[in-house]
Amino acid sequence: SDHMENICGYLMKYTNLVTGWQYRFFVLNNDAGLLEYFVNEQSRHLKPRGTLQLAGAVISPSDEDSHTFTVNAASGEQYKLRATDAKERQHWVSRLQICTQHHTEAIGKNNPPLKSRSFSLASQGSANSPGVQRRPSQNAVSFFSVGHHRLPSGKRVPIMQPDHLVDVREMMSQAEGQQRDLIRSIECLPVSGHLTSLDQDLLMLKATSMATMNCLNDCFHILQLQHASQQKGSLPAGTTISWLEPKISLANHFKNGAAQNFPAEINKPASVREEQSIAEPCQLTREPEEINPDEELEDICDDKEDDLGAVEEQRSVILHLLSQLKLGMDLTRVVLPTFILEKRSLLEMYADFMSHPDLFIAITNGTTPEERMIRFVEYYLTSFHEGRKGAIAKKPYNPIIGETFHCSWRMPKGDVAADAGSNFSAHSPSEQIPLSKDLEGQTELDYYTVKFVAEQVSHHPPVSGFYAECVEKKMCVNAHVWTKSKFLGMSIGVTMVGEGLLSLLEHGEEYTFSLPCAYARSILTVPWVELGGKVNINCAKTGYSASINFHTKPFYGGKLHRVTGEVKQNTTNTVVCRVQGEWNSVLEFTYSNGETKYVDLTKLSVTRKRVRPLEKQGPFESRRLWQHVTESLRDGDIDKATEHKRALEERQRNEERLRAETETPWCTKYFLKEGDGWIYHKPLWKTVSAAQTRQMDTN
After folding, report:
1. Which of the four, 14, 441, 545, 591, has the lowest number of CB atoms within 10 Å?
2. Apex CA 355: angle with CA 612 and CA 359, to 5°?
3. Of 291 and 248, which is predicted with more confidence?
4. What does the alpha-carbon distance between residue 650 and residue 531 come to, in Å, rounded to a whole number?
5. How many CA atoms lie within 13 A of 47 on its CB side?
6. What is residue 311's predicted lDDT score, i.e. its pLDDT?
């Protein structure tokens, strides 16, 4: 064919999070059915840096943008590539698809037929025997041809007969039935005793058996395509073999195997139809909105995430999900089951890290640079406890692009520490007086206001920007965070890529800081959260810095949630404060003068945030946007929550597709891109600077 020419050229290849995108020289070898790449064109005569077999591969243009595409080999290896423009991407994709089709058909025509045989997949002996003996005829290799077979010369390969596929389908049905019986037998075991349904080996057996059946179904699908190719002579133009969706669907495992039938479009609740039909965000007003704190009311929501029942009931969903994941796999695009979600958005979770506004405001009251750095460290370490809701590891909603969250806190001035050593309140939550009553009759000057706004500024990669300020104290914090999730076997790791900046305008100081990684551990039993990694806080003007280590629990022994750190003066390399303890329990601060202070985080008073009622919120504010998902989760209706969540996600995909087709860039509302970061459109440092300039002009 004229279209089967070998092509070559430079493409960008995604390597990893650290290295990112790199230019590489790619060569499409049509004769061998290979895609090879080299460091550059000059090294083309050397051994390729990487090679992909294209037979059975899937070539997929990405919906991220008009330049990116992926090559998914049948071996499971993947290349994520980016062309210079849409035209070049189409050129590469079409040539790769033609080559892939050609070599996939060749395999279908040249593979030897399956031998007809009938046998039972049941183990010899008792069906309940834990040790399954496999007869030679039951070896999976005897069913499917793996790799290339060298045939005697001159022998013609007979065409696969339809009854062979019928035999294989019958064997598959038997295997699927036995796999269901296996899962049912394990789930019927008691939850306590010598051998339980929570036994780690049995849970892994359930997960791997699901993965095996999915793989076998994919192989059977390839056999069907090969047979169709032999009957018709060729595959339809432009098609490639693609992997099937899992045969054991998530929807069929919401109730430990009970099938779920979602209603048709016509029967969907009005709220779902509304979620799917909201106008494209860029067609709504993208002008920044000034939120009046007087419209905000003290938050009365108290959604504690302590329900372990859902995790126990939905164990088969977790196992099925794990069976489809690979070690180190990026979970950004993986749709997680609804029952593991918290009843709040990730943007609101960032706001909950500000639940001790008295400690935040007290930072700028420090009389020396050393005291201000120590106060910031104290505030930083106390923020994570309230940011987590309950002991169980659940995941907040993934914000959709353009989603925003607004809130504020009012802090009586008498409750904010003015001198060192009095930063922490000893009140317990039960002794706390609600702010709405506490502030009755007070004038505006009797309390400080901390305002907060967050926005999802990017979908791929998922980046959130958030900003908080206290105008009266001339201090603000700006941060952007990219949440990068990975599957780590029996846990999930989330890297918080990004940076924050605290500005104390009264002192002309800026503090940069990072965030620790988070891990969801024991995801097959009772999942729990721990933090890990090293974070740094630096103030270039004063020369003070802090190094904080969040320690993950060792495999044997050791304490949970341990944190250590120190604050030092960089010029003299003198340590002025050391800290140790648990970030969700008790922290011990030891100062250079020998004093020691203990902080019990469980007894720190929490200031409730103030949020506008739903009816006054915009359609893309977190609580209004996710209200139907949240209500369904509160009612325990997982199916309904899943339906509402799916509607929101589908709407976001449709909007993204429309923007790509019309080449319309996304417009953020509150944050502007500056370099690699995102900055609030009207930060306090610009406002104060402009006011000072006007005052100087007046004088």
Report:
1. 441
2. 130
3. 291
4. 32
5. 0
6. 52
Delimiting residues of CATH 2.40.160.120 domain(s) in the chain: 297-419+446-680
Residue 432 pLDDT > 60: no
Q: Name the residue with tokens 């064997």.
A: 171
Cα distance between residue 544 and residue 536, in whole Å: 11
Pairing type for strands 596-600 and 586-591 reads: antiparallel
Q: What 3-state DSSP class applies to 245? A: coil
Return d(Cα 47, Cα 42) in angstroms, integer: 12
pTM (global) more than 0.90: no
Name residues whose C-beta falls within 8 Å of residue 408's C-beta, 6 or more positions apart in sequence. 291, 293, 296, 449, 450, 451, 452, 609, 610
Which residue type does 213 have?
M
Which among 303, 312, 309 is positioned nearest to 343, based on CA atoms?
303
- Going by C-beta distance under 8 Å and a sequence separation of 6 or more, which residues neighbour residue 381? 548, 563, 565, 579, 583, 587
Q: Which residues contact 522 (CB under 8 A, 6 or more apart)?
A: 490, 491, 528
Every domain range in the chain assigned CATH 2.30.29.30:
8-110
94: phi then psi, degrees, rounded to nearest 5: -65, -40
pLDDT at 139 over 80: no
Residue 362 is predicted with a pLDDT of 94
Report pLDDT for 267: 47
Cα angle 483-486-488, degrees, rounded to a multiple of 5? 145
Q: Which own/partner pairs from 580-586 qualify as long-range (CB within 8 Å, at least 24 positions apart)?
A: 583/381, 583/384, 583/385, 583/531, 583/550, 584/384, 584/385, 584/388, 585/561
Closest to 584 (Cα-Cα) out of 606, 559, 601:
601
Copy the structure tokens of residue 279. 């106008």
Average pLDDT over residues 585-598: 92
| Dihedral (Cα; 368, 373, 378, 383), 10-degree rounding | 130
Q: Which of 555-559, 607-611, 656-660 has the highest mean pLDDT?
A: 607-611
Q: What is the pLDDT of residue 564?
A: 95
Distance CA 40, CA 37 (A): 8
pLDDT score recorded for residue 317: 60
Q: Which residues pair with residue 566 across a beta bridge?
A: 547, 578
From the number of C-beta atoms within 10 Å of its C-beta (0-12, 13-18, 19+), residue 70 rates as middle
- Distance, CA of 454 to CA of 465 (rounded, Å): 6
Q: What is 8-110's CATH number? A: 2.30.29.30
- d(CA 106, CA 54) in angstroms, rounded, equals 12
Q: Which amino acid is at 402?
A: G
By C-alpha distance, which of 415, 361, 351 is closest to 383? 351
Bridging pattern class, strands 21-29 and 34-38: antiparallel
CB atoms within 10 A of CB 126: 9
The candidate with the shortest Cα–Cα distance to 355, out of 208, 468, 278, is 468
Domain covering 297-419+446-680: architecture: Beta Barrel (2.40)
Q: Which residues contact 566 (CB under 8 A, 6 or more apart)?
A: 546, 547, 575, 577, 578, 579
Q: Rounded to 5 degrees, what are φ and ψ at 430?
A: -70, -25
**DSSP of 185-244, one letter per residue?**
HHHTS-SSSSS-TT-HHHHHHHHHHHHHHHHHHHHHHHHHHHHHHHHHSSPPTT----PP
Helices (H), 388-500: 435-438
Task: Report yes or no: 622 and 609 within 8 Å, Cβ to Cβ.
Answer: no
pLDDT at residue 570 tops 60:
yes
Q: Please give the DSSP secondary-structure letter assigned to residue 399.
A: P
